[in-house]
Amino acid sequence: MNALDAINQAKDTITVRRVYGDPYQVDGVTLIPAANVMGGGGGGGSAEGNGGGFGVRARPAGAWVIKDGEAEWRPALDVTRVIVMGQIVAIVALLVARSIAKTIARARAGR
């Protein structure tokens, strides 16, 4: 792929159309899904400009809910991220508790 073609294709791919999905209606409520979209590209290679590429990553961000003329943002919940963060907090708490217990044990032994 020509590097210039890759850059032009990346420009067409990473647009606001990728962030907001098509709105749809359910029971008189309009929903507009949204995503966090990131991307990047690069080029290099031969004298003809061949060699390049790009990548795009999208994650659900939430949705706009429009009802009776009022718009409300509803964020998406990434359960995996919540679980991983909970595990990290638990590990840190256990390490801190262990350190405190060791300090107390040393203080009592030194009396």
Key attributes of the depicted protein:
3 helices, 2 domains, four-stranded antiparallel β-sheet, alpha+beta, 111 residues
**What integer is the average pLDDT?**
83
* Backbone shape: flat
**Counted beta strands:** 4
Which regions contain 5 or more consecutive residues with pLDDT less than 50?
none
Please tally the helical runs, counting DSSP H or I stretches of 4 or more residues. 3
Q: Provide the structure class.
A: alpha+beta
Strand arrangement in the largest pleated sheet = 1-2-3-4
- Main sheet record: 4 strands, antiparallel
- Ends: how far apart? 75 Å
- Helix content, binned percent: 40-55%
Would you kindly provide a written description of the structure presented here, covering whatever features stand out?
With 111 residues, this protein is α+β, with helices and mostly antiparallel strands. It folds into two domains: 1-76, no CATH class; 77-111. 41% of the residues lie in helices and 36% in strands. Strands 1-2-3-4 form a four-stranded antiparallel β-sheet, covered by helices on one side. A hairpin with an 8-residue loop joins strand 2 (29-43) and strand 3.
